[in-house]
């Protein structure tokens, strides 16, 4: 059964998210019956297979200026699709996955979905949280 995990959107960021092309009713993470994984936030979409996912864990307490929109990490090749600064799920890939922001690909993706525990479990991770300050 296909599962969709929508974003937990902080209304204060909404004016900043709209230029990214956010579609509140369609964007988020979709795990399809055919084994595909699709994460989207407006104009940015990342697609891979669930077999390429090596782990998932919850992270919290992001800096507000790094918490919204689609952006690459300044520390590594990760990608964030963020809609709040409270919490998200960090997903790790065996093989880098390309996006509009990097053709070389990303080894990890952070998404700020509403159902953190549900997405983490669906990806085979344990919904234990990373200690505050350990996230990007």
Question: Order of SSEs, N→C?
Answer: EHEEEEEEEEH
Q: Can you tell me the residue ranges where pLDDT is under 50 for at least 5 consecutive residues?
A: none
The rough form would be described as: globular
Number of domains: 1
* Contiguous helical run count: 2
In spatial order, strands of the major sheet run 5-8-9-7-6
Termini, distance in Å?
Answer: 32 Å
Structure description:
The chain is mainly β and 136 residues long. The chain has one domain (3-122). The protein is built from two helices and nine strands; from the N terminus they run βαββββββββα. The strands form two sheets. Strands 5-8-9-7-6 form a five-stranded mixed beta sheet. Strands 1-2-3-4 form a four-stranded antiparallel beta sheet, with helices on one face. A hairpin with a 6-residue loop joins strand 6 and strand 7. The chain is globular. The N and C termini lie far apart (32 Å).
Pick out its properties.
mainly beta; single chain; 8% helix; 4-stranded antiparallel beta sheet; 136 residues; 2 helices; 5-stranded mixed beta sheet
